[in-house]
Amino acid sequence: MVTKAPEDGYTAEPFVPERGGLPALRRAAAGCRGCPLHRDATQTVFGAGDAHARVMLVGEQPGDQEDRQGRPFVGPAGKLLDRALAEAGIDPGEAYVTNAVKHFKFTQAEPRKRRIHKAPSLREMTACGPWLAAELRVVEPELIVVLGATAGKALLGSSFRVTQVRGTVLEEEIHGRRERLVPTVHPSSVLRADDRESAYDGLLSDLKLAARVLA
After folding, report:
1. H helices within 58-195, ranges in order?
2. Each residue's pLDDT tens digit in the chain (215 positions)?
């Protein structure tokens, strides 16, 4: 009889502790094998920030720098996000930042070549959902800022389109909790934009709406 590996089940549920705060969740997540992404990633990149934050920012997945350092939003997109948050009137130090998927998914032509980001599948996002549910349960934010299409699909379903709802305030049930959400683009899309200044202004406008919701 062949025993299935934990990742074949595509769920993090068995790895999530029933009780404990963020430190307990972070320790447990380090050993998560709820989907195959753990095999190639350097480490789990769990959420970080204020455990009692009023605002939680949810992105897609760790990037190359995040995978190496073990913290979310430490690369160029994270620096841009911190700048935009501060300009919008939200103290980055008082926020909680995390990703829908906790392991870096990438393609690599050959060893030692640059690792190219690859979008996680809906199955991988769903597998990682119990971690995000646990973070929401512990932090209990007043507002979730949804950063990009992948985060939106993880939280709101596969029909989510960031272009249709960005810069609006949504009220939805997420993992058993009634949540308010402000969707916007992922800061990495600003860095890739042809007109970076205009793209940044759009992100800033959405974050200013989030700041007004929190006021």
Report:
1. 64-69, 76-88, 122-139, 149-156, 162-165, 187-192
2. 556 788 989 999 999 998 889 999 999 999 999 999 999 999 999 999 999 999 999 999 999 999 999 999 999 999 999 999 999 999 999 999 999 999 999 998 787 788 999 999 999 999 999 999 999 999 999 999 999 999 999 999 999 999 999 999 999 999 888 999 999 999 999 999 999 999 999 999 999 999 999 99
Amino acid identity at 150: T
Question: Which two three-digit tokens encode residue 121?
Answer: 């599948």
Name, in order, each residue with C-beta under 8 angstroms of 36's C-beta and a sequence gap of 6 or more: 7
CB atoms inside a 10 Å sphere around CB 156: 18
Between strands 143-147 and 116-117, the pairing is unpaired
Distance CA 186, CA 152 (A): 10
Question: For residues 24 and 135, what is the distance between their CA atoms, to the nearest angstrom?
Answer: 11
Distance in angstroms (rounded) separating the CA atoms of residues 135 and 213: 21
Tokens of 33: 């094998």
Q: Is the pTM for the entire model greater than 0.85?
A: yes
* CB burial string 127-146: b at 16+ within 10 A, e below: bbbbbbbbbbebbebebbbb
Rounded Cα distance between 96 and 132, Å, is 12
Ramachandran bin of 35, using left for φ above 0, alpha for ψ from -120 to 50, beta for the remaining angles: beta
